[in-house]
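so my prof wants the structure for this chain in the tokens format not the other one, which i didnt know existed until like an hour ago. anyway here's the sequence
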Amino acid sequence: MRDNTFENHLITLQNICHTYVIADHSQPTLSDISLNITRGQSYAIVGTSGSGKSTLLNIIGLLDRASSGHYRLDGFDIGKTTADQRATLRNRLIGFIFQSFNLLPRLSALDNVALPLRYRGCARSEACARARRQLERVGLSARSHHRPADLSGGQRQRVAIARALVGEPALILADEPTGNLDSTTAAEVMALLLQLNRDAGVTLVMVTHDQKLASSLDHCLVVKDGRIAKQEPASA
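here's what i got, hopefully its the right format
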């Protein structure tokens, strides 16, 4: 059931903890994380390797579940959802952008972008029409029938951005989206993400090691030893 009490907050995390269990060994990765993410804002998550920032992103993205605590996404109490309900929320509310692009090599750019809509049950004609609009939006309409192997790294990431946007999500989660790109292409991709955040009002949450990129977002969350050590305006 959806609760609109905190409708200005797209995401509310309260006392989130996460522990990996391997054989008989437990490894805490997140401890007592509490934060609110406001609709339409942009957030950088920064921290050293192993600090827990990617685990936090995976929990926000419904790719992993917290061991304890409360998570509310767009008014939905995630702790009370089934696996199928979480899959539906993930498909309809969240767009993912990964460092390694995660494009299917045998599909064209157009079919890669259309894939989330096909999972929803959209007719192929409608899904492809919407995918073409998103490829045009990221400047790749002329490459729509090329496979990933025939595209540059920057072009692949633009395809990934188009795929993230095709379902008109409320939230984009980006995990080191510029990590495999040269500095010029990285700046172009970052400018595109910020433009989409600003013009379309899509909430952006991005994990990055690059402090310069982090400073271009509205807020910075510093994760250290599984805890949020600092929350501040990114430019602070």
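also thought this was worth mentioning. The mean pLDDT is 90.
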